[in-house]
Write a structure and sequence with these properties.
Layout: E1 11-12, H1 20-29, E2 35-42, E3 47-53, E4 58-61, E5 67-71, H2 83-92, E6 98-104, E7 107-112, E8 117-121, E9 126-129, H3 132-147
Length: 148
């Protein structure tokens, strides 16, 4: 698959110029969606890639091709997200899609379709909700479910 476009001051790239790991993820989980553009951001000590699809889904990759940020208003394929995180979401927030997931050295941040945001550490343990509103909503939902 060949796709390129211009994107600001970043360098446009063909899909086959992405790291292999990034191409495999795209082919495995997003093969039916057209790519709008792909770009490479080369900084002094690091390189990253961004791929944007025509449906608005956006994936950012590090220099090795590991995803660091995925956003999709249609929901992110569950197989991309670690199973332990998905288990927590299914148990505490059933039937809600993940629309954003970020990964860095400290762990994962996950946003659900209803705007609840959660933080998981590197060992995939839930560390909390990211703001008071979502924490109150999440706790209220948990308490409501446990009383039914």
């Amino acid at each position: 698959m060949q796709t390129a476009a211009t994107a600001g001051s970043n360098k446009s790239v063909w899909i086959d110029q992405l790291p292999e790991k990034a191409r495999v993820l795209i082919d495995t989980h997003f093969s039916g969606i057209k790519i709008s553009y792909a770009k490479m951001d080369k900084e002094l000590f690091d390189t990253s890639y961004e791929v944007v699809f025509t449906n608005g889904t956006k994936i950012e990759f590090d220099r090795k091709g590991s995803w660091t940020d995925i956003e999709s208003r249609n929901g992110i394929p569950e197989k991309i997200i670690p199973a332990e995180i998905m288990k927590f979401i299914h148990e505490h927030h059933p039937n809600l899609k993940v629309i954003k997931v970020e990964y860095d050295r400290s762990g994962y941040e996950v946003t659900l379709i209803n705007s609840i945001e959660m933080k998981f550490d590197r060992r995939l343990r839930m560390r909390g909700y990211l703001n008071n509103l979502t924490q109150k909503v999440g706790l209220s939902l948990s308490l409501l479910r446990s009383s039914i």
